Amino acid sequence: MKPNYYVAHPWHGLELGPKAPDELDVFIELTPQDPVKYEIDKASGFIRVDRPQKYSNRSPTLYGFIPRTYSGDLSGKHCSEVVGRPDIKGDGDPVDICVLSASPINHGNTILTVIPIGGLRMIDKGEADDKIIAVLKGDEVFGLMKDIGDAPKALINKLHHYFLTYKLDPNSPSTGTVEITEVYDRAEALKVIQFGIEDYIKKFVTV
What is the pTM of this model? Predict the structure, then answer.
């Protein structure tokens, strides 16, 4: 077999998978063990240290993004319509995803096959920044969950709290910019992903 000397860009080069959006291949940047926040470098595709986690905040789940998605005009419009605010835009990033897994995956830069079960409708500085919640396909504990109501409420609450506080300076709590308007189900998660796919095509594929 001829070796592959070229690595695909995780955002643009990876495929969603043939069953998308019901089942997806996603890219993991961050694990619950990571004491720093990693993020994909959009230009190169390598993982960059975004910022150290300043306080006790650590992601309670695996965290990454859905390849070939983009939070653009359609994503922002959908969020605006749902929350009843006309000023919301997409945040210009791939759609984020949190993956529930009992299997000990201890490093990022990893591709997982997941099944979406819901999400958090998050708005940061007036921009749609949804966090899709999914389960690792085949996971012994979470793999059979079909919708957000099947997931442990305590874990969803931890995700909710993490994203409300992960950018917050406890010495200046009024500086927080993040709000979460709702926790939504699988059907809505699939809509958000589909808008992200369409926004990506509009931004990067359509000539």
Answer: 0.93
